[in-house]
Give the backbone structure.
Amino acid sequence: MPPVRESLPSPAVKPAARSLASPVGIIYGVGIERTEMFARLGVRTVGDLLLHAPRRYEDRRKFITIRELELGKSATVFGKIVASGVKRFRGGARSVYEFVLEDGSARLHCRWWNLPFLERLFAVGDEVMVFGKPNLLKPRTMDHPETEKVENGDDITVHINRVVPIYPLTEGLPQRAVRSIVWRAVQEFADQVRDAHPEMDLTAVRTRAAVDAAREQLELEARPLPRRAEAIRSLHFPNELADADRARQRLALDEFVELQLEIQRRRQKLERNARAFPCSGDNRLMKPFLAALGFKLTEAQVRVLRELRADMGGPVPMRRLLQGDVGSGKTVVAAGTALMALESGCNVALMAPTEILAEQLHRNFTRWLEPLGITVELRTGSRKTSRVQGPESQVGLSLGNSGPRTRNPGLPRLVVGTHALLEDSVTLDRLGLVIIDEQHKFGVAQREQLLRKGRDGGRFPHLLVMTATPIPRTLGLTLYGDLDVSVLDQLPAGRARIRTHVRDAAALPRVWAFVRAELEKGRQAYVVYPRVSESDHDEVKAVTKEFARVQKELAPHRVGLLHGQLRSEEKESVMTAFRNGTVKALVATSVIEVGVDVPNATVMLIEDADQFGLAQLHQLRGRIGRGAHESHCILVAEQKTDTAKQRLKVLAETTDGFALAEADLRLRGPGDLIGREQSGVPDFRFGDLRHDRALVEEARELVRKSLGGGSNQ
Ligand code: ADP
Ligand code: MG
C-alpha cells in the first residue's frame, strides 16, 4: 500500500481549483489503491466525502475501565497489548487469533476466529482502543470487537479526547485513515458548503418540532437547526452527540426539501399548462346506478364523490388520491367517478396491478354499468379482446392494432386492464379519466405513461389513484405529495365482526378442526402461505408443498390452489369455483391480498404469518367479514423474536388500517411496507421516513411558501 502523502496541496491541483468537486484521491494524494477503496464507498469528490456519514459515534472523552465492563453491553476501552498470538486447530484448518489488553484495572481477551493474518497487525506494547460487547466475564472476553490502534504522534483532537465518528468502511481502508482525511476535508472545505435555497430559512425549523414522539426523550430543548455548512461539521466532529443528531436532521430536511420542490413544481406546471375535459357529468347515469346498488352510500362515500365531482368539473386535470381502509368501499366510489366522465361523453381507463384484480373489477363494473348501456372491456396480458361485443372500430377506444383511431360517435366506454393497457397496441381516445388501483404497485413513471397516452392535444385526463393499503402520512407526502387526498374514513354499516387470533404451530390440529367446522356450516376459508415454492435458504412454508396437506386436513371438502405463477385460465377457473362455492377452501399466496371479494368466506388462516408485513396481514384479513357471518383471522407463527410477537399483537388488537400502517412503517421501514416490487420510495441518505414525519411536513410547508402558495391536501 502506498504511504499517505502528507504534502498539501498536491501538485496536480492548483489551489484555485480546490473545490467540493475536486477528486478526493488527488486532493489528498491517497494513491490509486485507496482512491478505488473510497470509490467503493461512493466517495469520489470532496463533496461526497463530506456527505459520507458516520455509522455511529464514540465518546472518547471518558473511557470506562476494563474492570467496569458488563456482560453483553457495548463499550469502548483503552489499553496496552500484553500478549498476542494465533492458536491453530483441526490440523490448521481453523484458528483463533487473540490478544490480551491491560489497562491497569483488569485484562481483556480479544479473539478473532479464522483471521490469522491479524497477528501481523498487532504487537505486544501497542496501545489500542477496543469497542465491543463482552461475551464472557471470566476471563473478560470479546469476540470480534472493533479496534483502533493509537499511533505515536496521534492527533488527539481528531481521534481521541472527543466524540469520534466511526465510518462505514470497505476492506483495506482503516478507520483512522478515513477519519484523518475527513478531518482535513472538513477543515478546508466545510465553509464552501452553501445552503441550496437561501430564500427558505431552514434554520427557523426547531429540532423540538422536528423530533418524532419516540425520540422526544432524546432532545427536549428547542434549538434551531444549523446551517448546512455547520451541519456538515457536526455530522463528522460534533461537540456533543446531540449536535450530530441535529446535523442529521438538517441534512435530512435538505433532502426532503429537494423532493418537495420536485413534487410541487410538477404540480404547479400541471396547473399552469394542462387542461382537462369537463367531466362532472349530469347525473343521468349516476341516479339509476345508485338506485340499483342495493345499499346506501356511506356519508364518507357521498362526501368523497362530491370532492371528486368538484375536481372533475374544473379546468385543471384532477390529480387525486383516494385512501380508505380495506372494505371502506373504494370500488363504488371509483365507479361513481367513472360515471361522471362517461356521462360527459368521455372514455375511462382503469388500471390494476394483477390479472385477478383486473378481472374482478371488470366483473363488478360490468354488473353495475352494462345495464346503463356502457361497454366495459378487459385488457390483460392474456385477454386482448373485449368480452362485450360491438365492433371496436366504431368507438374511440380501440383495442388491438385493428383499425384506425376514430372519433367517438357512440356511447363512451370503460376499459379495465393491467399494465397491458400501457402497450402500444392499445390506443385511448377522448380519455376523460384514468383510475389506477393500488397505485404504489406501479410507480410514478407508469402512471405518467398512461396519462400521456390519454393526452389529446393540450388536454390531459383526470387522474384518480387508489391505494388498497392505507399509507402513513409521511410516506403519502413523499410518494404522492403532488396529489390531493380524499379519505374514506368510515366503513359501511352492518359488517360482521372479525376476531383475530394468534397461535403457534403446536395449536395447528385445533385450528384445522375449527376450519373444518366452519366449512361444515357452509362457510368458506382462505389458507395463506408466504411462498409459491420452497426455498433452500429457509423453512418458510410454500403453497405448492402445503396444498396436499391442506387437502388431507380438510377432506372431503374441495380445496383449490391459487398463486401468481399459474396460467391466467387456471387462476380464473379456481377463483370462479371459489366464488360460486364449489371450492370450499382456497390455498393461496398473498395474490389474494387485494380486491378479492367473496362474502361467504369467514376464515383467513395464515401460516408463517411473521413473514408478512402488518399492512399486508391487514389486507388479507380484509378478505373476510364481508358478509353477515362472524369471521376469524388466525395467524399462525413461531414468533421467535420480540418484534414478531409485537407485530402480531398489534394486529390482533387493532382494526384501524391507518394505525397499522403507521406501526408497520416504524417496525419495518418504508421499503417493506410498500412492497419490494416497485416501492418508488426515494433513497434518502439522511432522511428516515420512520421518524422524520415532522421534517417532511416542514419541508412541504417551506417549499409551498417559497413557490408562492398552491394548495393541495
Ligand atoms: P375496498 O375499499 O377495500 O376496495 P370494496 O370497494 O371492495 O372495498 O367494498 C367492499 C364491499 O363492500 C363490497 O362488497 C362492496 O360492494 C360493499 N360496499 C361498498 N359500499 C357499501 C355501502 N355503502 N354499504 C354496504 N356495502 C358497501
Ligand atoms: Mg379495493
Observations:
- The longest helix spans residues 241-273.
- The first strand starts at residue 56 and ends at 59.
